[in-house]
Amino acid sequence: MTGTPRTLAEELRTRTDSGLVGLLRARPDLLNPVPGDVTQLATRAGTRASVVRAVERLDRFVLQTAEALAVAPDPCPYDTLGALMAGDAGDPAVAAELPRAVAELRAQALVWGPDDRLRLVRTARELLSPSATHPSPTGLGPTVAEAMAGMSPGRLQEIIAAAGLPTTHDPVTAAAALTGLFSDRSRMAALLDTAPAESVAVLDKLLWGPPYGGVTDRPAPHLQWLLDRGLLIAAGARNVVLPREAALHLRGGRAHHTAEPVPPALAPATERDPQLVDNAAASQAFTALATVEELLKEWDLGGPAVLRAGGMSVRDLKRTAAALDTTEQLAAFWLELAYAAGLIASDGEADERFGATPAAEEWLQLPDHERWAVLAAGWLAATRTPGVVGTADAKGRALAALGPHLDRSPAPEVRRRALSLLATLPPGTSVPALAVRSRLRWERPLRSGAAAGQAPAAGRTPGAPAAVDGATGPAGSAGSAPDPVDDLRSRLAQWALTEAELLGVTGRGALATHGRALIDATSHTTADPTPADTHAAAARAAAVLSPLLPEPVDHVLLQADLTAVAPGPLHRPLADALGVLADIESKGGATVYRFTPASVRRALDAGRSASEVQEFLTTHSRTPVPQPLAYLIDDVARKHGRLRVGAATAYVRCDDDALLSEILADRRAAPLRLRRIAPTVLAAQTAPDQLLDGLRAMGYAPAAESAAGDVLIARADTHRTPPRTAPAPVPDGPPSPDPTLLTAAVRAIRAGDLAATAERKPVHAPAPVSGALPRTTSAETLATMQAAVLTHSALWIGYVNADGAASQRVIAPVRVEGGFVTAYDHTSDEVRTYPLHRITGVAELADDSV
């Protein structure tokens, strides 16, 4: 195509295949479904939903460039745009970055046309142009022509006469004359030199927006001076507006208060020894594994009940936080982390409860670094956001941990981007979280909720009119500008940095070596990483982390105060066995276990004998078994099992009838409702488990027995949910297309465009209207097809499929028989067979069309 394109579709046709691929990659929503031709692609690219999504993903300077084009003449020469961005004084940084911004807008089909006629697509202009109800971040108001629309011709002539301009014959030329005056730097300066100081102060008040001001019924003389010369124009009964051309002159030609061509620096930076950072991160990674493992152990017999609306109750969250020795907010993070990794879920029963999944058993058997990889992969891709737990939803209800409505679709992208920014720093270097949040707000200002480039007057909400004559207009009132730090994207970034520290991805605020390996595979790709990519990256990171994690030990140090010290992480079988025999007293670099009568009895209930307990301790202790511990084990074992409890409802059996008499005489046994039914047997009206607990509370050590009289080994029955998959992340818009899909889509668009725009020859009728399906009789269609087979020529056909969808195609017929034509379809780039009765018509292509 030659000449200047007249529409966006014409410009898209001039793009190379790589240019169309770049457009579809940047705006994947255009691919669903694949456009039939370039015209459909251009139409879809101009729809409001698609333009809003594209504009939301622009960085601050590119967005400022689009906002400047929205207030510039249409079309806008590049030099005019440069003046709006840099002002009359110029700005080398703006001049250097402006070509990139324009190229980015062109690549995303938001701007088209040559440099001397840049055009913002109509929908984007409507979104970004200022209006009374939708202020622009530029703070500019309507043009003179827009503000004067509807003004009486007599009043127009009075204004241009007061401004020193010759009278005109119609409103259009009057508005054009005033526009020319305000746009002329020298004439405008001369006019303002005659203005009263109070009038200039009013203009300064409205200069950077909002451009609307409130006035009284009788404006003061200095306001009337401005109104008489069109420097303020009435915008209602008691409101005035500063016209755009006048504001630009007062601003020195700048559309924005401050152009931001370069992103904020990641500063101040703090440098540390990378090895110290890695060690700190590895220590925290090990703590994360221990915390999740403790959570699973806490829920081994079943977790809390699921609320009717989903999630955990506040009381259960507090109980879990106490068990993990942490805060409720951190407990919510550990719960959501385990949930994202597929380790906990609800069991789906009628009395629904949370519990560990079968995958948790497999996870517990993995080496430490592989267990960390599972957690890291789940965290990196999760859209569930524990940071919002406890806040209110749209209906004012508190959001519960593990409940619904916790998904925030931008979370994975923000998480990866925050870590990627840390990866750009030298190893061991950290920056404040505020610096990372500021960079993210620059990269996505609209998604962050902050108005790009706007500098509202102090103490005034953007969009509210200023009081220029002792009154305010109805559009707003005084207030404070919203704090851009408190937007969702900034909070997601803050949570991401905090969670990365908890998980051991970072150490002391700096990205660890294994953290760099985790993010490296997902930060240098244009497409969203797949779950396979994320798990592969986590596995590589885990391999780097593995040497930094402490090696498990196979021994403890027994002490005379009935404690055992584990000098490091224990091998899992040893830790499990010791966890039954003793209670954990303290954690840290070395775990301290305490032996008590209850803990020893727990081991005996689990089937161990006193000799087996003694042998276990002797085998796994580097110190001799202390005498007090040996006495404790023997004493508990001697009493264990003398009483037998079974089901009557329940009964107590003992060969020592004196001991049974002692129990009956004890007033603490009254709630058990015991009665002697034989010299060595007591019957109870309580369940066996309650009877066991009651006797143990009285200081006895009963054992449960079966119906055959054998001692029951009381092993805790672990509660596991049915197999559950980890929650699927909620996508943030359509997924990024892969190269294969992009290549196929561009080929289909090109072929469809060829079918829609190729020059055709008439068969026996006038040439069809461009874009309409051809119409020929069945005989003409058959004859043309047969001739094309002999001449090996291409044809343009109209085709209606079985669903009634009509399309245009370019085919090269190969064979015609049995009511079908076999042809190479240029549209789909494959050989296909078409029923002749579904072909609406056919036309030959011009000789140079294919």
Description:
The protein is an alpha+beta fold and 850 residues long. 44% of the residues lie in helices and 12% in strands. It is built from 34 helices and 27 strands. The strands form eight sheets. A six-stranded antiparallel sheet has the order 22-27-23-24-25-26. It has a five-stranded mixed sheet with strand order 19-20-18-17-21, covered by helices on one side. α10 (153-162) runs parallel beside α11, α25 runs antiparallel to α26 (531-545) and α28 (597-605) packs across α30 (627-639). The longest helix has 25 residues, at 274-298. The two termini are 15 Å apart. Mean pLDDT is 85; it is low at 450-463, 470-485 and 763-770.
Provide mean pLDDT, rounded: 85
Total number of β-strand segments? 27
Which descriptor suits the 3D outline? elongated
User: Helix count?
Assistant: 34
Give the terminus-to-terminus CA distance: 15 Å
Strand order of the largest sheet: 22-27-23-24-25-26
Helix share, percent? 40-55%
Bin the strand percentage. Answer: 5-15%
The radius of gyration computed from the alpha-carbon positions, rounded to a whole number of angstroms, is 39 Å
SS class: alpha+beta
Instruction: Summarize the main sheet.
Output: 6 strands, antiparallel
Poorly predicted parts: 450-463, 470-485, 763-770
GO molecular function, one term: helicase activity
Keywords: ATP-binding, Helicase, Hydrolase, Nucleotide-binding
Biased composition (Low complexity): 449-482
Pfam family, one: Helicase_C_3
